[in-house]
Specification:
Elements (H helix, E strand, L loop, with lengths): L8 H13 L6 H8 L3 E10 L5 E10 L7 E7 L5 H17 L5 E7 L8 H17 L8 E5 L5 H14 L26 H14 L2 H7 L9 E5 L3 H12 L3 E7 L2 E4 L6 H11 L9 E3 L12 E4 L18 E3 L8 H10 L2 E3 L1 H4 L2 H15 L8 H19 L5 H8 L4 H26 L6 H20 L4
Helix pairs in contact: 1-3, 1-16, 3-16, 4-5, 6-8, 6-12, 6-15, 12-15, 15-16
Length: about 475
């Protein structure tokens, strides 16, 4: 556990929860139940390594809330994994799912290893053994608990999990739904990879489209022309940068752990990514200025700052020097509670992680539904829509005597494919959630910031679930 820290990660989640609970109507006992972690499974198991020695692996799975089933949350492979962190992340999953109306309880898993120190074969043995342990204790299943990728894991690990689960549960027709983030060939869904970054973009774009909010911040409405700084060029940072750039924003700086680069005219994330792949670093990227320290990027003049890397990168020490007007938390917990207080006082808008990076879990939900329905999105209606649109277009052209351009024709005739439907469902989810949170914040002037408003939104939804379940004898 993390005794040496001023407070644990789980404690800081509880602090945010308590701050928001004051603005809700639920009695103390119910609030305690919402806050508590329901089940914590801490395990140790031996795995034989390539060199013949046996290593005892430490791993966890936490189910924070069963107000909705199944539980949902990623599995991370990291040296830093401990029970406190997994509990905190599981509780954030409960609140995140509630805000974006995804009917899951929160869960989270972790294996305390550095994946870089293991061969693919060792990682496979560890992942499969972990899955077997979860099956043994009924901690995984399409209706019980559905893991997903997180730090240090991806499609490959999810494929191992589903294969192990299916082999231990022969004949279970919905076995593919026991985990999400799988390769498309193994029942995954198209659009999952970019989901978190796209969700970050949709959420911030919706905030930027609110005239009253922009007026307060002294900014124009919309994301076009806004300057953006992205910290972290992983999956989430890369896709956040991509969608902002494509929408007409300027990504003026990108930071990675080796340092940061700046270009006032804007950077192209794909070019930077390819350059880093070739040279092993983003530094010396043509046309960009190097910043001395990676963290200097956080203090640049910009409209929107997107920390998309690690926890606690903005704290009481550097927060006073941050000049962004909007901070979009793409990572989990990039701001400490002290930084929150400072930004609140300075009038900087923090768009909180617990709903802003919910794109991943939203699309995971779509994947789970796809697995339970055993049919690909768009398969039933794509051709029908195209035929219908073709007919309507033909009638209009005949009646008006005019022809539409080829570009417009292909756009109008296009029937939705899986990725179109997934992106559209994600857009709807993020817009609705942003408006709900803003509504709560506006309706109670005492709520200090958007994070507290998001927690109020989550607590009210989970509280209503518990109350309606009538689980209190």
């Amino acid at each position: 556990m993390s005794e040496h820290k001023p407070y644990s990660f789980f404690h800081s989640v509880e602090r945010s929860f308590d701050k928001a609970a004051k603005f809700t109507k639920w009695e103390k006992g119910l609030l305690e139940q919402i806050k508590a972690c329901n089940s914590i499974y801490s395990m140790r198991f031996p795995v034989k390594m390539d060199d013949g020695r046996i290593e005892v692996i430490e791993a966890y799975r936490v189910q924070h809330s069963q107000h909705k089933s199944p539980c949902k949350g990623g599995i991370r492979f990291s040296d830093e994994v401990n029970q406190d962190e997994v509990m905190a992340l599981a509780s954030l999953m409960t609140y995140k799912c509630a805000i974006v109306n995804v009917p899951f309880g929160g869960g989270k898993g972790g294996i305390k290893i550095n994946p870089r120190n293991h061969s693919a074969y060792e990682l496979e043995k560890i992942t499969r053994r972990y899955t077997a342990e979860l099956v043994k204790k009924n901690f995984i299943g399409p209706g019980i608990d559905v893991p997903a990728p997180d730090y240090g894991t991806g499609e490959r690990e999810m494929a191992w999990i589903v294969d192990t689960y299916a082999s231990l549960k022969p004949g279970e027709i919905d076995a593919a739904g026991c985990v999400t983030g799988k390769p498309v060939t193994q029942g995954g869904v198209r659009g999952r990879k970019e989901a978190t970054g796209l969700g970050v973009f949709f959420g911030i774009r919706e905030v930027c489209n609110m005239p009253d909010v922009m007026k307060k911040l002294g900014l124009t409405v919309g994301v076009e022309g806004k300057t953006v700084v992205v910290q972290g060029l992983g999956n989430v940072g890369y896709h956040s940068a991509k969608f902002f750039r494509e929408a007409g924003s300027k990504v003026v700086a990108i930071a990675e752990y080796e340092g940061a680069i700046f270009n006032a005219n804007g950077l192209n994330e794909e070019e930077v990514f390819q350059y880093r792949k070739k040279t092993g670093s983003i530094l010396n990227f043509p046309g960009a200025t190097i910043l001395a320290k990676s963290t200097d990027a956080l203090e640049l003049e910009c409209d929107i700052l997107i920390p998309a890397a690690l926890e606690n990168v903005i704290n009481g020490e550097n927060a006073p020097r941050v000049k962004a007007k909007i901070i979009g938390e793409a990572a989990n917990g990039p701001l400490t509670p002290e930084a929150d207080e400072i930004f609140s006082a300075k009038g900087i808008l923090v768009v909180p992680d617990m709903y802003l990076n919910a794109g991943g879990v939203t699309v995971s939900y779509f994947e789970w539904l796809k697995n339970l329905s055993h049919v690909r999105y768009g398969r039933m209606e794509k051709r029908f829509t195209e035929n219908m649109n073709n007919h309507i277009l033909g009638q209009i052209e005949e009646l008006t005597g005019k022809q539409v351009t080829d570009k417009e024709r292909s756009f109008i005739l296009h029937g939705p494919e899986e990725v179109d439907l997934v992106h559209s469902g994600l857009e709807e989810t993020m817009i609705t959630a942003t408006r709900e949170i803003m509504e709560i914040w506006k309706s109670n002037p005492e709520i200090p910031d958007m994070r507290t408003a998001a927690y109020v939104c989550a607590i009210n939804k989970v509280g209503t679930s518990y109350a309606e379940l009538g689980i209190f004898p």
